[in-house]
Specification:
The structure is a single chain. Helix 2 crosses helix 3, helix 2 runs parallel beside helix 4 and helix 4 runs parallel beside helix 5. This protein starts with a strand and ends in a 5-residue tail after the last helix. About 35% of the residues lie in helices and about 25% in strands. It is globular. It is of the alpha/beta class.
């Protein structure tokens, strides 16, 4: 059974067909890069269940989480608080966060363990609004990871950071995703990142799937070069 399936996925913005009746399949454990126009709509099936119209909380319960291009953190809370709050939400205990949080030692232990995995343990007590942009990107993914997803969407995980920070950030994310066998979909504009860290690349053009294949196959695809990368892309 396919892990994630879209059927006739469609999203129009006026006369622009960002996604035009696209059928799309992702296998369990794949790290798939999706490049091209953004959009959503149609029918989405995750592990055999139609999740198209499910509210966010139900999708999280089903095992789907995401990070954001513009990080979605509570800047007035500490780094460890952000991760712990995500765990409280996963456990359905959010209402206790500001009153009885100290009574849930196991949640704080898990939060600190997650920060260690992401290399953020030394920043645990700092306010999330006061750490660097690269660290904020990692924390945003850590917050999503704390939900224990089986499918993780990463929306431009290296946008807004310096060139030298991109590979270290993706090294951490890729190592965790692969070691935990999390299926991941990466939306990213940095082609160096796309080609280095993806098992498969799906190229969207004018609302349709232009090509799907390994990084080597996509790199050598003349149609992709001309339509997406431009004829000078190496």
């Amino acid at each position: 059974m396919s892990y994630l399936v879209t059927e006739k996925l469609t999203k129009y913005f006026g006369d622009t067909h960002a996604v035009d009746k696209v059928d799309f399949v992702i296998g369990e454990g794949e790290v798939v890069a999706l490049i091209g126009s953004n959009g959503a709509g149609g029918r989405i099936v995750f592990r055999g269940e139609d999740v198209t119209r499910q509210p966010v909380q139900d999708r999280i319960k089903a095992g789907i989480a995401r990070s954001f291009q513009i990080v979605n953190l509570f800047d007035e809370l500490t780094v460890v608080d952000n991760v712990a709050l995500s765990i409280f939400a996963r456990e359905g205990k959010t209402r206790w966060f500001f009153t009885l949080a100290d009574h849930y030692a196991s949640i704080w232990e898990e939060a600190h363990d997650i920060l260690r995995q992401f290399g953020l343990d030394l920043k645990a007590k700092q306010l999330a609004g006061g750490i660097s942009q690269g660290e904020r990107k990692l924390l945003d993914v850590a917050v999503a990871y704390a939900l224990k997803p089986q499918l993780l969407f990463l929306d431009e995980p290296t946008s807004g950071v310096s060139t030298r920070e991109k590979a270290p950030i993706m090294d951490v994310i890729s190592s965790i995703v692969r070691s935990q066998r999390i299926t991941a979909v990466v939306i990213e504009h940095d082609m160096d990142i796309i080609f280095k860290y993806s098992d498969r690349i799906v190229v969207m053009h004018q609302g349709l799937i232009l090509a799907s294949g390994s990084p080597e196959e996509i790199r050598s695809n003349e149609s992709v070069k001309d339509a997406v990368f431009g004829p000078t892309h190496a």
